[in-house]
Amino acid sequence: MDLTRAAAEALDDADPLAGFRSRFAGTDDDGPDRLLYLDGNSLGRMPLDTPAALARIAEEEWGRGLVGSWASWIDVGTRVGDVIGTGVLGARPGEVLLADSTSVDLYKLLVAAADARPGRDVLVCSADDFPTDRYVVAGVAAARGMTVREVPADVDEGLDPAVLAGALDERVAVVVLSVVAYRSGALADVAAVTATAREAGALVLWDLSHAAGAVTLDLAATGVDLAVGCTYKYLNGGPGAPAFLYVRRELQEQLRQPIWGWFGQRDQFAMGPAYDPAPGIDRFGVGTPPVLAAAAVEVGAALVAEAGIDRLAAKGRAMTDLLVALADACLTPHGTVLASPRDPARRGSHVTLAHPAAWQLTQALVDRGVVPDFRTPHRVRLGPAPLYTRFVDVWDAVDRFRALLEDGAWRDYPQERSRVT
To answer: Which residues does pyridoxal 5'-phosphate bind (predicted)?
Structure first.
C-alpha cells in the first residue's frame, strides 16, 4: 500500500461518497491546522439540513399548528423507524421503531424475550461488552431470579464463536451481544451466532450501536430476532437522540414488553381501563415520542440511506486499512500496539491503538486538533466516519500523532483520568 499523502488524496479524488462531506457542519476548513474529527463513532457530525428540519417542526408545526400537528406526529416512531430499518439495517417495513433510549429499549426487548422462553433461567452476555448492556442484563436477571453467564472475550479480538457455543445449553433464554465491540471494533458474525443460538433454543438480542450506519447489516436475511441501537453515532441524529429497536416480524405477536404505555396500546385514544398491546411493532412503544429529536434522526438516517450502506461499509474498511498501515509504519516504532482485529473483514469502522500513556496522548491529540477518544485499558480509539471523513484526514491525523510521540509533549499532561471523552 502506498502510504504517501498524495496517495491518500488520490483515494479521496476517486471516492464516490466524497460529495456527502459538504453536507455536514464543520467540514469546510481545508487548512493545515483544521480539526481532524475521528470520533464519529461516539457522536456524529451535524447534517447541514438538521437545523432547518428542527425549525420547521418548532416554528410551523408546533408554533402555528399546535396540537393539530399531532396528525403528522403520531406515527413518527414507525415512520422514522422504517427509514432506519429499510435504508440502513436491511429490515422489512414495520420491523423497526424509534423509541426511548438504547438502555430502555434493551430492557424492554430483553424482558420480552426472556418471557418468551419460559423454563429457561440463564441470560448470556459478553464479559467485554459495553457496560450498560451488562448492567441491564444483570438487573433483569436479579429481578427475575435468573443467572447471568458472562462469556469471556478477548479485549482486542472480540468474542470467539466457539467459546460462545460452549456456553449455550437448554437453560439459556436470551443471548445479548454487540455486532461491533465498542472498544476494539471487533465485528461479530451475526448470521453464524444467530444460527448457533437458535439451535440451542435461545433468542439473540443484538446491540447495533457501533454498527448501524458503518457496516453492512441485513437483519431480515440473516434471521436476526431482536436488536437495538443508538442514532447519535454513525446515524448523526445528535446528542441524546432517541434509539431504535428491531423485532423480526414473525416474533412481534409472541412478545409482550414490560413497560405498558399508551403508545403501545391497541386503541390508544379509547383510554380504556385495561392494557391490550397494539399489533405489530407499535406494541413496543411506551410514551409520547420525542418529535423534535426524531426530526433530527430522520435527516441523519436518510443521508446514510442515500449514500448506501454497502458503499459506506466498503469505505470504512478502506479507511481503517489505511489507518492500520499508517499506524504500523509511523506509530508502532514509538510504542503503540494495534488493539483491533487486523483482518478488515473482522473489524467495524474504528481502530484502537494501545499505549501505556493513552490517556495523556488522547488529551494531547485533542490540543493538536485531532479528536479521538480514550477507552480503558490504556487505549486510543480512532473512528473515521465514512460518510464525511476523508482519507487525507486519516493520513494527517496519524502524522500529527507521530509528531506527538516523537516530541514527547504528551508527558506534560496529567496521568490520572479525570473524565472519559
So the answer is: 102-103, 130-133, 207, 210, 232, 262, 288
